[in-house]
């Protein structure tokens, strides 16, 4: 989307325009929801995170820089919300746990969106997705999870290696 | 992790299907947003009315030249007299016009003058209140 047009939408939403807010929602909600679903692994939680993200957008409209695209900001907010939930709900899970579980064939739309990642623990899935797909640095991940950079690097490296093995096994099973 | 493994993983993850957003979510967010806007608008309106009432009853609080009433005085809010009541009616009319403008997706060139007119009305509200002094 054109940044100038997005800035105009943000300005109108800031003044209270329902239509401007709805336009922003229609353009970005899928990206936010899908990210939240992949990080949380749960459609209901993903809905909650998406709602939280867009309400936060409403609250911080006055402080957003007009020359910056909205989507990275929205995704960052959604990611942080997912990480907060993960740390709050599963404090006892070992961060470097790499056990795999689950069916090979996806049973639901959410399973399909997660692919082979659904067989990894939520923490592992979150760190890998944010680093490999969303481009978070290991330093950012380490700070956000209160761990070291080497922890993040090791976790991603081992998970990607395991993921690749699973992809090959999956290919073999299909051929 | 090798570069090749990284690329394979990235390609695989990027190829995963993106599900649609659940249909009811937009309504749920719209409802939550409307609740918050009502709260915010109510708060702003209350603050504006309080400010308007204050400057009407305590003219010295607005008059840079000062007066017999100390600036520190805090007066209770009273009903707006005569022409200031009309002014408040006009402010309400502008609020309705603003909402209607938003609803029909009016342009900035229409909305901004409404906001400016509203600000001017509120800013120059205390003239009728001077008669209350004494």
Overview of the structural elements:
The complex is a heterodimer of chains A (175) and B (134). Chain A is mainly alpha-helical and 175 residues long. Chain A folds into 2 domains: 1-89, RNA polymerase sigma factor, region 2, helix turn helix motif (Rna Polymerase Sigma Factor, Chain: A); 93-175, Orthogonal Bundle (Arc Repressor Mutant, subunit A). In chain A, 71% of the residues lie in helices and 0% in strands. Chain A has helices at 3-14, 18-40, 43-59, 70-89, 109-114, 122-133, 138-145, 149-174. In chain A, helix 2 (18-40) packs across helix 4 (70-89), helix 3 (43-59) crosses helix 4 (70-89) and helix 6 (122-133) packs across helix 8 (149-174). Chain A is globular and about 55 Å long. Chain B is built from 4 helices and no strands. Classes of the chains: A mainly alpha (175), B mainly alpha (134). Chains A and B meet through helix 1, helix 2, helix 3, helix 5 and helix 6 of A and helix 1, helix 2, helix 3 and helix 4 of B.
Radius of gyration of chain A, CA atoms, in whole angstroms = 18 Å
* Helix content bin of chain B: 55-70%
Number of strands of chain A: 0
| Amino-to-carboxy terminus distance of chain A | 41 Å
Q: Concise description?
A:
Chain A has 175 residues and is mostly helical.
Write the layout of secondary structure elements.
The complex is a heterodimer of chains A (175) and B (134).
Chain A: H1 3-14, H2 18-40, H3 43-59, H4 70-89, H5 109-114, H6 122-133, H7 138-145, H8 149-174
Helix pairs in contact in A: 1-2, 2-3, 2-4, 3-4, 6-8, 7-8
Chain B: H1 3-14, H2 25-57, H3 82-103, H4 108-123
Please describe the structure with a list of short key phrases separated by commas or semicolons.
heterodimer; A: mainly alpha; Arc Repressor Mutant, subunit A; globular; B: 134 residues; 4 helices; 62% helix; 0% strand; disordered C terminus
């Amino acid at each position: 989307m054109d940044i100038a047009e997005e800035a105009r939408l943000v300005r109108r939403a800031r003044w209270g325009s329902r239509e401007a807010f709805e336009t922003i929602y229609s353009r970005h909600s899928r990206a936010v929801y899908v990210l939240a679903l992949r990080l949380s692994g749960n459609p209901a939680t993903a809905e909650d995170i998406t709602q939280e993200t867009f309400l936060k957008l409403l609250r911080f409209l006055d402080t957003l820089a007009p020359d910056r695209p909205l989507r990275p900001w929205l995704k960052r907010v959604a990611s942080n919300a997912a990480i907060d939930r993960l740390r709050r709900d599963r404090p006892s899970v070992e961060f470097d746990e790499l056990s795999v579980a689950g069916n090979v064939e996806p049973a639901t739309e959410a399973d399909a969106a997660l692919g082979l990642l659904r067989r990894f623990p939520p923490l592992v899935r979150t760190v890998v997705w944010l680093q490999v797909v969303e481009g978070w640095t290991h330093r950012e991940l380490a700070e956000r999870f209160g761990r070291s950079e080497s922890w993040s690097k090791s976790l991603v490296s081992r998970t990607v290696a395991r993921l690749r093995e699973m992809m090959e096994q999956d290919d073999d099973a299909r051929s | 992790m090798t570069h090749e493994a990284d690329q394979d993983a990235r390609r695989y993850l990027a190829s995963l299907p993106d599900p649609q957003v659940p249909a009811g979510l937009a309504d749920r967010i719209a409802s939550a947003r409307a609740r918050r806007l009502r709260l915010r608008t109510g708060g702003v309106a209350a603050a504006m009315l309080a400010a308007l009432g204050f400057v009407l009853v305590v003219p010295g609080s607005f008059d840079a030249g000062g007066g017999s009433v100390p600036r520190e005085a805090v007066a209770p809010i009273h009903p707006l007299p005569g022409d200031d009541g009309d002014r408040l009616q006009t402010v309400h009319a502008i609020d309705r016009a603003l909402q209607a403008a938003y609803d029909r997706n009016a342009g900035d060139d229409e909305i901004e003058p409404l906001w400016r007119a509203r600000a001017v009305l509120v800013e120059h509200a205390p003239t009728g209140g001077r008669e209350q002094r004494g």
